[in-house]
Amino acid sequence: MSTGIHDLKSLTAGDLVFTIAPPTERTTLEITVDRDASLILRAPTCATRERVEQFIESKRPWVYRKLAEKDALAAPPIRKQYVDGEGFAYLGRNYRLKLDETADGVRLDRGRFVMSPAVAADGDAAMRRWYVRTGQPWLERRVEPWASRMGASGVGVAVRDLGYRWGSTKGESHINIHWATLQLAPSLIDYVIVHELAHLKELNHTDRYWAEVARAMPDYERRRHDLTTAGVKIWTCRG
Ligand SMILES: [Zn+2]
């Protein structure tokens, strides 16, 4: 006889923890995301752990979306002003903005972002383009050693806007990284890279998936935690 789900108080699936609601007459499985972002799982009396875990995996993208929406609502939106002294992060360091009539577009120059006032009129778009353009070659160099360590060859990477996700995968050998990720410290960007590379082998956050991540990056749990903390302070242009 397999374990009934109601023998458990909570259930951990990868990085998600569900509180099991007391059994009721219901006949279907349901996940709800509470106002405080806690996850509640409701299940019929007869549901097995295996069935529930399958259900959680199928709902995982939806759960992340809900959690991201709550995060976005809880944290005040970050808006940038295109005036002297505004700060922009790149690879974990903060740089001040300097408007300069003689500047051509935007560039990072001797510890400052220099931007022409004409470009500053649509500064968000200019900065986003800068992160994409500068991040692309940086990430290509950065992904390569991780990919070979994880036994993947010829992995392509593209810097894009991915909404609420740090990264995503496409097909069997391509990963996308959100341009906003480039604001983080390299050690946290590495976590995003490894997270996505592991998804090329295992789509879902199964035990096998996390074992793959741990093999490449033994201290990934600390980095994942730091990413959560740093992530809410990252500018994503959605303000
Ligand atoms: Zn993932």
Explain what this protein looks like in three dimensions.
- It contains six helices and eleven strands.
- By secondary structure, it is of the alpha/beta class.
- The strands form three sheets. The chain has a four-stranded mixed β-sheet with strand order 1-2-4-3, covered by helices on one side. A four-stranded mixed β-sheet has the order 5-6-8-7.
- A hairpin with a 5-residue loop joins strand 3 and strand 4.
- Helix 4 crosses helix 5.
- It is elongated, with a radius of gyration of 21 Å.
- Globular, elongated, flat, extended or rod-shaped: what is the shape? elongated
Give the full name of the CATH homologous superfamily of the largest domain.
Metalloproteases ("zincins"), catalytic domain
- What proportion of the residues form beta strands (DSSP E)? 15-25%
The arrangement of helices and strands along the chain is EEEEHEEEEHHEEEHHH
- Identify the CATH class of the largest domain: Alpha Beta
Descriptive keywords:
single chain; alpha/beta; Zincin-like; four-stranded mixed beta sheet; 11 strands; binds zinc ion
Describe, in short, the structure shown.
With 239 residues, this protein is an alpha/beta fold. It is 39% helix and 21% strand. The protein has six helices and eleven strands.
Topology:
Layout: E1 10-13, E2 16-20, E3 30-33, E4 39-42, H1 49-74, E5 87-90, E6 93-99, E7 106-109, E8 112-115, H2 117-120, H3 123-149, E9 156-160, E10 167-170, E11 174-178, H4 186-199, H5 207-216, H6 220-231
The structure holds zinc ion.
